[in-house]
């Protein structure tokens, strides 16, 4: 019996095999019942407990459940996903930059296609929205393409109003034509020249090398004659854009700046700083100082509104830090002949824009028509609510005219040579396929045409894509017809293919996606189209973020996207540059 009894040590961790007992501890009551000898003699005490017949007084301890720490599963998953996303983004960005900087081989231009059919020659006049969107979507392996423009870069005009204030560097929104042409699958030739004459009957264009405004001079050959050449075409894509419309108002060409080209933005900035520095030399109470300190914009469309907003931001956020009290002196005035600015936008957005301008301190003058301009003042006719008119004189230091489009001289010359274009006054007349009325080999798009669509970059962009798709299908059609002649036994087979291609050549249909405008103080308005049945009118700081995101996504090259975002980051960190040169 004694051999089968195993001593139990209080608090022992290990229990011998064959014995299954709970962990126990001695209570105060059991300790009190022990004799002093038992307490002093551990062995005797242990023996007495082992051979005692009384029930030992032990208290059972319940097992303690140790809770394991929760694993951070969701956090770890989110962290890993974030790291992978960042790595993937930078990998994709690096690849896009590499592809843009190192384009692949192009199919060289040739007289014949691989099937023996003759390659048609396409000449593109212009380097704006219509021309570049057409070039980017055209299958240049099927045509010999030549692009002719006196401007050897594509200018992203929606962000041009941000250049005079220094928010964006002008180079960030310029993309070289040669870079764009090099990225196409087939070889594209570029000629920096201006078309001075077009012969629709002979299908040839006379070109002249010209220099941009503000350049140092022109290139000449023997006897100081300008460099000229002639180029022929099978198809002409005419996209020369438009010039500024002054509506015959005296004094505007001589005294006002425009905002049409990159050089215009630089000139506006220089004039603004010239006026500021000259005014600082005059007494504060001087009327001449007040005149120089008035920046006037004529035209309440998106360009005029955005320019006024950008200049006001420049004054309030940057110039006032370095020129004391300039925000109180330097005024921004916006003149519009119509009752409202941004007339094509939703009425709620028009009202919101007026409130923001009032809050910022932009002087908004609506129902004010410019009648004359001299080197110091803008003379206007103000239409009152009762229909009466008052003469108003607005002094200015810097004047910018953003009043509309007019046709270029070469467009008027071309229209005069085609009978069906004799009545065209506001632009070339085209059919639903953008083909020039009266000529089957000239296609026109963009601001140089007169259609029911508004003269905007969005329209020209969609027209370019449409026309490129049209020419891609036209090339297939031409190849099928060539094979029919070359191999008469396949005529029936290719007749069905020809019919399918013709059915796919649908007329152009403009899809309005909305309008955007920056109105200052990190706020913008967006008049968006939701399908063909609804519009969404948005305004505020979140719309400003959408405005920026939309325009960055519309930039053609990855280099330009990075440069524009970098410009915005630099302004947020360091502010705009306050020197005359941008």
From TrEMBL:
User: What keyword terms does UniProt attach to this protein?
Assistant: FAD, Flavoprotein, Membrane, NAD, Oxidoreductase, Transit peptide, Transmembrane, Transmembrane helix
One family name in Pfam for this protein: Pyr_redox_2
As recorded in UniProt, its EC number(s) are 1.6.5.9
- This protein's superkingdom? Eukaryota
Matching SUPFAM superfamilies, A to Z?
FAD/NAD(P)-binding domain
Q: Which residues form the External alternative NADH-ubiquinone oxidoreductase-like C-terminal domain?
A: 512-577
Q: Gene3D superfamilies under this entry? A: 3.50.50.100
Q: What class of enzyme is it?
A: oxidoreductase
List the record's Gene Ontology CC terms alphabetically. Answer: mitochondrion
Q: Which InterPro entries match?
A: FAD/NAD-bd_sf (IPR036188), FAD/NAD-binding_dom (IPR023753), NDH-2 (IPR045024), NDH2-like_C (IPR054585)
Q: What name does UniProt use for this protein? A: NADH:ubiquinone reductase (non-electrogenic)
Membrane-spanning ranges: 77-95
Organism of origin is Eeniella nana
Q: Which family does it belong to?
A: Belongs to the NADH dehydrogenase family.
GO MF annotations for this entry? NADH dehydrogenase (quinone) (non-electrogenic) activity
Q: What positions does the domain FAD/NAD(P)-binding occupy?
A: 121-464
Tell me what reaction this enzyme catalyses: a quinone + NADH + H(+) = a quinol + NAD(+); a ubiquinone + NADH + H(+) = a ubiquinol + NAD(+)
């Amino acid at each position: 019996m004694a051999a089968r009894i195993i001593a139990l040590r209080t608090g022992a961790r290990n229990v011998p095999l064959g014995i299954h007992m709970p962990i126990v501890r001695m209570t105060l009551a059991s300790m009190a019942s022990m004799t002093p000898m038992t307490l002093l003699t551990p062995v005797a005490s242990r023996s007495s407990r082992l051979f005692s017949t009384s029930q030992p007084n032990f208290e059972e301890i319940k097992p303690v459940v140790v809770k394991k720490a929760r694993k951070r599963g969701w956090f770890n998953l989110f962290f890993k996903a974030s790291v992978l996303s960042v790595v993937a983004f930078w990998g994709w960005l690096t690849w896009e930059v590499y592809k843009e900087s190192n384009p692949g081989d192009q199919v060289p231009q040739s007289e014949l296609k691989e099937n023996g059919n003759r390659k048609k020659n396409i000449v593109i006049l212009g380097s704006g929205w219509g021309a570049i969107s057409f070039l980017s979507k055209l299958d240049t392996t099927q045509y010999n393409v030549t692009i002719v423009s006196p401007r050897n870069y594509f200018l992203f005009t929606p962000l041009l109003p941000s250049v005079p204030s220094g928010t964006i560097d002008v180079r960030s929104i310029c993309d070289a034509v040669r870079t764009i042409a090099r990225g196409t699958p087939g070889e594209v030739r570029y000629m920096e020249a201006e078309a001075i004459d077009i012969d629709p009957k002979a299908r040839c264009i006379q070109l002249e090398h010209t220099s941009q405004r503000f350049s140092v001079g022109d290139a000449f050959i023997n006897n100081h004659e300008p460099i000229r050449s002639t180029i022929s075409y099978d198809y002409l894509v005419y996209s020369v854009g438009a010039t500024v419309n002054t509506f015959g108002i005296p004094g505007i060409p001589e005294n006002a700046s425009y905002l049409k080209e990159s050089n215009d933005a630089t000139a506006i900035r220089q004039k603004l700083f010239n006026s500021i520095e000259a005014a600082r030399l005059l007494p504060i109470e001087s009327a001449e100082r007040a005149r120089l300190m008035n920046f006037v914009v004529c035209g309440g469309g998106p360009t005029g509104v955005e320019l006024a907003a950008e200049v006001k931001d420049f004054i309030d956020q940057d110039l006032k830090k370095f020129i004391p009290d300039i925000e109180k002196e330097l005024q921004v005035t916006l003149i519009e002949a119509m009752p409202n600015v941004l007339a094509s936008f939703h009425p709620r957005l028009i009202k919101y824009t007026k409130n923001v301008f009032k809050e910022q301190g932009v002087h908004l003058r609506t129902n004010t028509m410019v009648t004359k301009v001299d080197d110091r003042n803008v003379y206007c006719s103000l239409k009152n609510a009762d229909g009466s008119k008052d003469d108003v004189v607005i002094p200015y230091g810097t004047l910018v005219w953003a009043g509309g489009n007019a046709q270029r001289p070469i467009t008027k010359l071309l229209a005069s040579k085609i009978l069906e274009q004799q009545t065209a006054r506001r632009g070339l007349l085209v059919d639903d396929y953008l083909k020039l009325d009266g000529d089957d080999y000239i296609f026109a798009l963009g601001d140089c045409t007169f259609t029911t669509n508004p003269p905007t970059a969005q329209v020209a962009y969609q027209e370019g894509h449409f026309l490129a798709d049209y020419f891609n299908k036209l090339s297939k059609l031409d190849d099928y017809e060539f094979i029919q002649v070359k191999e008469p036994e396949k005529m029936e087979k290719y007749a069905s293919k020809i019919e399918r291609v013709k059915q796919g050549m649908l007329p152009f249909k403009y899809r309005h996606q909305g309008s955007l405008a920056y109105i200052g103080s990190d706020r913008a308005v967006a008049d968006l189209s939701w399908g063909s049945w609804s519009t969404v009118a948005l305004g505020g700081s979140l719309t400003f973020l959408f405005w920026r995101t939309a325009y960055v996504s519309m930039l053609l090259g990855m280099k330009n996207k990075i440069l524009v975002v970098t410009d915005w980051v630099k302004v947020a960190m360091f502010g705009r540059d306050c020197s005359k040169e941008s």
